[in-house]
Structures are given as C-alpha cells and as structure tokens.
Structure to design on (975 residues):
C-alpha cells in the first residue's frame, strides 16, 4: 500500500503520544489525511507526515516538560519554550565573547573526541566481518608455517573443525590488454572461507582440490575490486590475469568483508606443495564445538606432539615450544589498540578540560548576572525558571558547538587517519554522519554536565541574600572559585606537557632534515615497478629508462634495484684478492643503470661512474662509496683495484668512488656500498625503481602521470607499484617522528587554546567578583594600572604554578618519546624553556584582557549600579 | 476555570471550526481549518488545543466508529458545549469592540 505513512515515522509518532484513545484518534486522522498528501508524491507526503510528528513531539513532549514551573505557566497558548529560547538567544548575543569562547572551547573538545572515537569505533569496536568471530584463532608463529607442515597436519588438527593456510602477497593484475597494476592478495588453502564463515555475495568460494598444483586457477574478488572493475553482476565466469596467468572469477565477497587486512583485493587458492619448506604462511582455524579459542592448551599439546613426531626442529625455530592460539581480533587489530586507545584517552582528557572551562566561564557569568537574577526573582520568577534558563542556554551553546564540532570531527577524522600509524587500516575509516552525530551527542552530554555546577550554585545560593551581600562588598556564590583555579593550574600543566613533547619532536625532526642524505633530493621523480610476468626483464628496464629520458622535461633517467633512504636492500659478501683476513665481511650491494648516480645527484670523488660502455661482454666494474674506501682501502686509492669473484664468478674492477649516501637509514654511520652495473649482472630483480631528474626549476610531480602512461605504453606487462618523488621518500625516512609530531602539534595547539580560555575565564570571573572592591579602591586613588597588574599577577601565579607542575611531569613523561627522538635528549632545556615561555606569554595575554576591562571601568558607574 | 476565560488565537479558530462542522472528527476539523485559514495545520497542535478546550469545558469529545481506511483506528468526534458557544460569543464581542472604528482605516490602506 502506498497510501500508508512511512512506517518508522508512524512508530515514532505512536511512541511519542501517550497511549489511549486520543492517540488512536490522532493516528487515524493522520493516516487518513496522509493519503491526500501522498497524492503529490511520496516525498511530499513523507515531509508532511514528518512535520506532523514534529508538532506532536513539541506539543506533547517538549512543552509540558519546559512549561512546568516557568513564568509562562497558565499563559495559555503562548509559546513558553519559544519565548525562553528567544530570551536566551538574546542574552547570549549580548555577551559575544562568552558565546564565542564557550562554543569554540566545547567545539574543539567535542570535535576532537568525536573524531578519535570514530576511529576507535571503526578499528576496535566494530564487529569483524566473520560469522563466528569468537571461534576463530590464529596459530602461533615461532616461524612462519610451511606447506609441508600444513599438508602433514591438514584435516587432523585436534580441537579445530577447520584450519586454513594463508599468506599475504602482491600480484600483478591485468584486465584484458589493459596495463598491469599491483594488487595485494591473499593466497590460501581452500578451507579459508569455511574458517571465516563468510558467504560470497556472488558466485562461490573455493572448492576442495582447487589448491593443488595444476588445478584450474580461480579467484574470488573483494567487493572493492569488483566495484572498481564496474560492479558487473555477470563477472562470475569471466577471466582475469594474475601474475601472468589467466584465472576464472568464481565469486565476489560482500561489502565490508576483509581478511587479514582491508587492503587485500582478491583471494586465490594457493597451490600446495607438500614438500615445500619455505616459511611464508600463517594458519587460521575455527575451533570445534565444545572448544574455546582461549582454552586450547590440551589440543595444542596434542598437535605439538604430532609435529614433534615428524619434524626435527632446530632449537631456535622449535614450533613444539610456545604453542598458542591468538583470538583473531587480537591478532588482526591488537597492535593498534594501545595507540588508538591512548589517543582516545588524551582526547577525552582534553574534552574534560574543555568542559571544565565552559563550567568556569558559566560560573563567571552567573556571578556577573547575579544582580539581574535577584531582580528577576523579586519580580516573581522562581529558581526553577532560572535553572531552566541556564539549561536552555547550555543546550544552545552545545548545539552550536555540536554543529561546529561535527564539522571539525569530519576534518579531524581524515587528518587522524593519516597521522596515526595505521597502515592499510586507513581503508576502514570512512567518515560518515555518525561522526558528526557523535559530536552532537557528546556536546549535549557535556553541556548537561557543565550546567550541573552552576545549577547547584544557583540552587544553593540564596539570591536575595546574594543581592544584599553584594551591597556589603562580600564575594557572592563562592562555590567554584578554588575549583576553577585548580582547573586552570591543571590545564596549564597539561598544555605544558603536550607542548614540551611537541617541541622535542619538532627539534628532533628539524635535525633529521638538516642531515645530508648524500643525494640531491629536489627535482627527482620515482616510479617503483614490478616486472612480474614480463619475459625479458633486462631489455624491458633498459627500454623504460630510455623512454623516460626521452620525455619532454626529463633531464636524465635511470633505474636501481633499491633507492637510498628506504631502509636497506641487498647485503653481499665482500672478498678482496690477497686479503684473506676479510672473511665474513659484507657490504650493501646495489645494481644501477648508467646515469643513476648522476640522476640521484651523488658526488663523484674519484674515477668515473657506470656508463653505457659497461656491457655484459666487457670487464665487470663497480663504483664504491667513500665509506667502503675508508674501511677497506685506508690510505690508498681504490680505483683500479679488484674486488672478489662473487658476481658471476668474475672479479669486478673498482672504477670510481662516490660520496656516501644514506643507503639504509637517514641516521647512523654511512655503510660501505658497492654500486654494480645492471647490464653486467646475471640476474634481474623483479622490483626496480625508475628515477628521473627534471630541470632545476620544475616539479617532478607534474610529470608522474605522463611517466606512468609511458611505462604502460612501453611495457604493458610491467606493473607500476607507486609513483612518488625523492622528497617524499625522505619524508618517509624521517618517519614516525614526523607523523606523531603532526598529531602532537595539533593536540598542543588545542591544549594551548584551552589553557588560554581557562585563564581568561578565571581571571574574568575573579575580576567580576572583585568589581565592587576594585571600584572602591580605584575611587579612593588606586591607579588603574595597579589594579590591572594585581589581576594579571593573580593569573600569572596560576600559570607559573601550572608550568612548574607541567615541566616536572614532562621530565618523566617525555622519556616515552625517546625512541622517536634524534640528537635531542628527552630532557632538553631548550624545548622545555620554549614550551614554558609560550604558555607564560599566552597566559599573561589571557589574563590581561579581562584585567584591563576591570581596571579601566568607571568606578562611579559600577558603584551606582550596585 | 476563571469566570472570564480568554481564548487564544488558535483556540478561537478551533472552537469556531468545531461549531461550523458540528459533531466533526479530527481529520475533518484539520481539513476545514486548512481550507478556511489557508495555513497548514499540525495534528499535534490541534489535539493539544482540543484537550485544553475540553478541560475548560468548551467541547466534549467521544471516540467512535473505527474505520478500515484509517488503519482500524477510531475517530475523535468533537461537539461544542453551551459554555463553548458562550465563550465564542464573548470572544467575538471583544473582537468587535477592539475593531470598532478602525475598519475604515484598514480599507483606506
């Protein structure tokens, strides 16, 4: 039936109305009228019905709630709520500083917390996409599991109904004749989907026997990959090329399914070789009925006995020791838990401080307005109305802050996703409306907590008495004064703590960037390729470098098997003829094409670099770096010397020496490195990095897309894994310190702002409390400047106290950061001084603003007003 | 209630409409109100007003004749009491007094 109102709204309406005949009558009337409105279309009908629900909500629920006790009682149809809201809006607009401060403070706290909560929810609390999460466990990894071990225990693992072997790897994917791309995949034994208990969206999972050598190759696609390929319903049965082999698509997994990482795009059966002893796989299993993942000691003892019978493990790789089943949740997301929870905790703390700030600001306002309230009471308003007014005001502030916080949360969500070290998990983070909704809910909850203290203060304090005591010059509504000061000290301490951490990291990151990586980073573009599937890798790489060099805007282009700053590569044994004492020596080993050393901007110290003349048929040559020359040829020129016969059984002649580059990490001693000619090597690595240098004034990023296209044209079978620049490689080398620095800088900025707001609020309140006293003193001849100095001094006292506590805490706490620091000690006087000075300055400014207002006010008008 | 009850604007409209349609029920009143006033009427507002008018003794309502077209729900029929008629008359008197002598001004405008 189309002429029935939307079921959800109708249920909401039925729930809102008090049960009884009246409800039935109204529901019936609206059903009847809906049919008429729905004739204009379902949307018009729905909107009409929605408005009806809203009106019932207002008239039957909200109004009775707010009217009780208010001055509007008995005023008939006059809209009490609307009037009170309008009154609150008016009074708030008269106090723009207060409004902006409270809204901003709350919005910052709420937005940040909602963003972090959104991340925590997506990563830690959301159910995993498996049917029986509690029954799935991952096997211990003394070392990775082998095909041989799995084939042996397969089908007879005690305590498990199903166990699957899987591994995580990259494959090239080609659709028809299109360019190849790299996709992360899982290859697994056929039990995988039985273990995880997830049914495919389309088609089927694996069938028994598909994981044997020579079986028809099949693939199950992730939902994401299927979407990217056009979400064609009839994809099952079509063919795709993985790593050069044609595979039949047999299924598509549902949206939201992932294993063991959200980045995985496809699932393929792994051809099992019962003899294969390579370690590279993991085991995941679903426990048999009657067993629990946490209590598998007995079955695992049986399993290790079984393994012991067949395998003779060396002591350090003994799988029969330390057998353990890890619940799948802990295995998959366990690593991120501390980081995410710690961030959530820190953020919640900042939210608390923000709420405390708003409370302090509100108390200050109450004080400032107590005369107004007393007059209203005298005119017949009751306390209940005053409290209601406070609540409405708090809700208005919270709603505004919630909207703003929602916007901040959306932004913060993306930013946090990038700054937290989450890796592929970032894919699970999709900002949705719930993040903004969370912000609103938190804001309202915070507002209700915030309004509690002022309410108690209002309820307890006899306002008529307050008015009298004002006359006598005694401070009013004392509650909160000391609490406020304590809060500010704590805030400042926290701000100092966070700022100190940020300052330490900033100094550390600066000194990392100041290091000379030995290459000229600017102006170099990088294309990482994977040759998997091409027939002649050597000529392909040479063609590619030639093609790139010919592109307009490119000066030079070359290739290497591993770039500097990426944390390592091959390390090969080093022998030198006539130097038997060097046994066991080894150096870094890089294969490079002609022009590579020039493209990277490595300085030539002696001899020559590798050129086009170094062919397979000519004498093998090597270029070494200064560290190698220093270490193995001290005091003599190495050029012309021969290195051992490890490459293709032939000696290599040293033809040049280049300056040290940061071949492994950015930091630490320069390692001895050999650069050998790619053309002369008997093998070709599947992973190659193509590099190109552009003219000094231009940006390599602008060329990356053209380069990617050129690669696809010249060598369609080659997959481009990543296009980037050498500057970004350097950023990555600077590493987690840089990521955490961003996060800490944001947090310390937040803490500084909140600290300043807190100091402002407390000094403003303090000044308001002493207004009359100050006015009298100024009237009696106290210079205004003295009054200002007095108040600022009070603020400074709080700030200094806070800084002291914060620095003391920082002495202990910054040690946590020491693993991230480079050439800066965890206790660094400059960083500490910087953080302290920043806080003091901000604190003094924040105290000065209200102090100046109090000190320059006209005493006569204040005294008259009182 | 107080002797001289004051009718709010919407109360006045509802009461007058109820008198016009005689023994009408909720949806009928809403239709009639919308037609006469040219404004959209919210069910919640109407029912709350009817509740209040009933408390003041100006209308009485009874639930009757469930109807399949309305999902088997009964109708709330409303009848204006003699007190209600009197209140309307007083209200009208008051309005007329207020309007006395200014209608011409409105026509000129």
């Amino acid at each position: 039936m189309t002429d029935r109102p939307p079921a959800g709204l109708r249920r909401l309406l039925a729930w809102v109305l008090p049960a009884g005949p009246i409800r039935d009558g109204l529901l019936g009337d609206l059903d009847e009228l809906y049919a008429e409105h729905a004739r204009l279309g379902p949307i018009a009908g729905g909107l009409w019905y929605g408005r009806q629900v809203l009106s019932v909500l207002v008239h039957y629920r909200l109004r009775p709630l707010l009217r009780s006790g208010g001055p509007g009682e008995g005023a008939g149809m006059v809209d009490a709520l609307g009037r009170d809201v309008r009154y609150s809006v008016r009074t708030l607009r008269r106090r723009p500083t207060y409004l902006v401060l409270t809204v901003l403070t709350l919005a910052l706290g709420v937005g940040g917390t909602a963003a972090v909560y959104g991340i925590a929810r997506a990563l830690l609390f959301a159910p995993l996409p498996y049917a029986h999460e509690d029954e799935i466990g991952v096997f211990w990894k003394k070392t990775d599991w082998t095909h041989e071990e799995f084939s042996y225990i397969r089908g007879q693992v005690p305590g498990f109904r199903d166990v699957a072997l899987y591994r995580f790897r990259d494959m090239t994917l080609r659709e028809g004749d299109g360019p190849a791309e790299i996709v992360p995949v899982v290859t697994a034994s056929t039990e995988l989907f039985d273990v995880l208990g997830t049914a495919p969206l389309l088609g089927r999972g694996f069938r028994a026997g598909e994981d044997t050598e020579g079986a028809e190759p099949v693939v199950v696609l992730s939902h994401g990959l299927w979407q990217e390929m056009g979400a064609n319903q009839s994809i099952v049965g079509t063919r795709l090329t993985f790593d050069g082999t044609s595979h039949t698509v047999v299924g598509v997994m549902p949206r939201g399914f992932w294993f063991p990482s959200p980045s995985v795009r496809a699932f393929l059966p792994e051809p099992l070789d019962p003899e294969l002893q390579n370690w590279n796989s993991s085991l995941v299993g679903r426990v048999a009925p009657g067993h629990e993942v946490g209590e598998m000691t007995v079955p695992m003892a049986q399993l290790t006995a079984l393994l012991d019978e067949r395998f003779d493990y060396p002591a350090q790789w003994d799988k029969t020791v330390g057998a353990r089943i890890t619940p799948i949740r802990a295995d998959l997301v366990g690593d991120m838990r501390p980081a995410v929870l710690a961030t959530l905790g820190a953020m919640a703390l900042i939210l608390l401080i923000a709420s405390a700030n708003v409370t302090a600001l509100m108390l200050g306002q109450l004080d400032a307005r107590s005369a107004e309230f007393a007059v209203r009471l005298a005119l017949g308003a009751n306390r209940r109305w005053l409290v209601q007014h406070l609540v409405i005001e708090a809700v208005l502030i919270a709603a505004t802050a919630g909207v703003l916080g929602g916007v901040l949360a959306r932004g913060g969500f993306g930013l946090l996703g990038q700054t937290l070290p989450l890796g592929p998990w970032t894919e699970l983070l999709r900002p949705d409306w719930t993040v903004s909704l969370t912000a609103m809910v938190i804001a309202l909850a915070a507002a209700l907590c915030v309004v509690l203290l002022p309410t108690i203060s209002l309820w307890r304090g006899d306002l008529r008495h307050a008015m009298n005591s004002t006359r006598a010059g005694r401070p009013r509504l004392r509650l909160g004064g000391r609490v406020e000061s304590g809060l500010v000290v704590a805030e400042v301490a926290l701000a100092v703590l966070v700022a100190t951490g940020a300052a330490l990291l900033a100094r550390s990151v600066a000194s990392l960037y100041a290091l000379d990586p030995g290459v000229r980073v600017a102006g170099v573009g990088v294309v990482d390729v994977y040759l998997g599937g091409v027939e002649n890798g050597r000529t392909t790489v040479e063609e590619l470098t030639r093609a790139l060099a010919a592109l307009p805007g490119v000066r030079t282009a070359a290739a290497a098997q591993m770039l500097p700053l990426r944390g390592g590569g091959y390390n090969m044994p080093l022998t030198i003829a006539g130097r038997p004492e060097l046994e066991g020596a080894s150096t870094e080993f890089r294969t490079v094409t002609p022009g590579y050393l020039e493209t990277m901007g490595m300085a030539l110290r002696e001899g020559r670099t590798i050129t086009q003349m170094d062919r397979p048929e000519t004498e093998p040559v090597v270029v070494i770096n200064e560290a190698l020359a220093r270490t193995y040829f001290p005091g003599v020129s190495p050029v012309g010397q021969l290195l051992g016969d490890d490459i293709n059984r032939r000696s290599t002649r040293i033809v040049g020496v280049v300056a040290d580059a940061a071949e492994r990490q950015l930091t630490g001693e320069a390692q001895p490195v050999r650069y050998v000619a790619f053309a002369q090597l008997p093998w070709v690595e599947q992973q190659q990095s193509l590099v190109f240098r552009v003219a000094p004034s231009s940006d390599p990023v602008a060329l990356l897309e053209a380069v990617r296209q050129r690669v696809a044209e010249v060598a369609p079978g080659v997959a481009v894994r990543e296009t980037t620049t050498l500057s970004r490689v350097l950023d990555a080398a600077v590493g987690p310190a840089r990521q955490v620095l961003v996060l800490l800088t944001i947090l310390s900025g937040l803490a500084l702002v909140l600290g300043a707001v807190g100091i402002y609020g407390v000094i403003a309140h303090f000044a308001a409390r002493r207004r009359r006293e100050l006015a009298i003193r100024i009237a009696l001849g106290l210079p205004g400047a003295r009054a200002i100095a007095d108040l600022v001094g009070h603020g400074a006292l709080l700030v200094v106290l806070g800084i002291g506590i914060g620095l003391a805490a920082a002495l202990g706490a910054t040690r946590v950061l020491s693993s991230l620091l480079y050439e800066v000690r965890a206790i660094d006087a400059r960083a500490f001084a910087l953080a302290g000075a920043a806080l003091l300055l901000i604190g003094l400014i924040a105290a000065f603003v209200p102090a100046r207002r109090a000190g320059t006010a006209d005493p006569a008008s204040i005294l008259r007003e009182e | 209630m107080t002797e001289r009850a004051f009718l709010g604007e919407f109360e006045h409209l509802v009461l007058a409409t109820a008198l016009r349609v005689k023994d009408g029920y909720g949806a009928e009143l809403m239709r009639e109100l919308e037609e006469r006033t040219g404004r959209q009427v919210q069910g919640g507002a109407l029912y709350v007003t009817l509740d209040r008018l009933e408390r003041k003794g100006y209308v009485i309502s009874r639930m009757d004749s469930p109807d399949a077209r309305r999902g088997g729900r009964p109708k709330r029929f409303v009848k204006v009491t003699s007190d209600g008629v009197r209140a309307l008359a007083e209200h009208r008197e008051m309005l007329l007094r207020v309007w006395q002598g200014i209608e011409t001004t409105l026509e000129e405008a």
Observations:
- Chain A touches chain B at residues 4, 21-22, 24-33, 35, 48, 51-52, 54-60, 63, 76-78 (CB under 8 Å).
- The mean pLDDT of chain A is 80.
- Chain A is about 50% helix and 15% strand.
- The longest strand of chain A covers residues 160-174.
